[in-house]
Design brief:
Shape: globular
CATH superfamily of the largest domain: HAD superfamily/HAD-like
Number of domains: 2
Strand order of the largest sheet: 5-4-1-6-7-8
CATH architecture of the largest domain: 3-Layer(aba) Sandwich
CATH topology of the largest domain: Rossmann fold
Structural class: alpha/beta
Oligomer: single chain
Strand content: 5-15%
Number of strands: 8
Radius of gyration: 19 Å
Largest sheet: 6 strands, parallel
């Protein structure tokens, strides 16, 4: 098995300095336009492992009579026991039979990439107050996600709103894939150059090394931050100049209430 890469997270004091600098940059309008903060969702602002855990627990309930041992394992599923790949997660939980692995994968896929189960996602530590602080400082917030509009658009809006992220007011945009089959990196590589039309990209956050690298190439003066949660196996090494954090807890910003008119 190929060893997982080790990312060198910023020490707490340096992470605090980074977040403070980004909030400060969000207040500075340049000749290129308003400051722009680009944020991925899954694995970056939100932990989607509770979504998978809830789906697998429901599957376990449906297997109660047919496969009682596997059912018990799935019903005990917690987010902390999950790997990036569903197949690895299922094996960790003790599901080994090829037919049941295939059944579980299909069941999960049918629900994971649809609106209804997005309600299970939770915000990473410090993510909501940090984004709200950047928006209040003057940044245009761009949520750039590999979720697709047809199947996940409604649930994405509802999830952002319920978790308290800025939404539905001036200075907030959401960009979703037009087609679920489009690869994440290809989609973001296509979109990245167009964000200069919004303003000056001052920072970008993503949990995929490849996406961080492409944003550093597109916006070398921006603060590009890799959120070290989970990412696709076999990801490329991070370019020099990409910062690494675990979450947003080092931001230490006040919790700003919803803006007037915000849903």
């Amino acid at each position: 098995m190929t060893p997982l890469p080790v990312y060198h997270r910023l020490p707490t004091d340096q992470a605090e300095t980074l977040f403070a600098r980004i909030v400060g940059r969000c207040s500075q309008r340049s000749a290129s336009g308003p400051p722009v903060l680009v944020l991925d969702l899954d694995g970056t602002l939100m932990d989607n492992r509770p979504r998978t855990a809830a789906i697998l627990r429901d599957l376990g309930a449906s297997w109660e009579k047919a496969h009682p041992e596997d059912a018990a394992s799935l019903r005990a599923c917690t987010p902390e026991r999950l790997a990036y790949l569903l197949s690895d997660s299922l094996r960790r939980l003790g599901v080994q039979d090829p037919a049941r692995l295939a059944e579980a994968t299909e069941y999960w896929r049918h629900r994971f990439f649809t609106d209804d189960d997005l309600r299970h996602d939770v915000a990473l530590a410090g993510a909501v107050p940090f984004v709200r602080a950047c928006h209040a400082a003057g940044a245009t917030i761009v949520y750039l996600t590999d979720r697709d509009l047809p199947m996940m658009g409604v649930g994405t809006f509802a999830s952002l709103r319920s978790l308290g992220f800025p939404l539905g007011v001036a200075g907030v945009e959401i960009i979703l894939k037009p087609d679920a089959q489009m690869a994440d990196e290809a989609f973001k590589r296509m979109v990245a150059p167009t964000l200069a039309r919004v303003g000056e990209v001052v920072a970008s956050f993503d949990n995929e090394p490849a996406n961080c690298n492409l944003f550093l190439e597109a916006y070398p003066k921006a603060d590009i931050v890799f959120v070290d949660t989970q990412h696709v196996p076999g990801a490329p090494p991070l370019h020099d100049g990409v910062f690494v954090v675990a979450d947003f807890s080092a931001a230490h910003v006040p919790d700003i209430p919803r803006a007037e008119g915000e849903p």
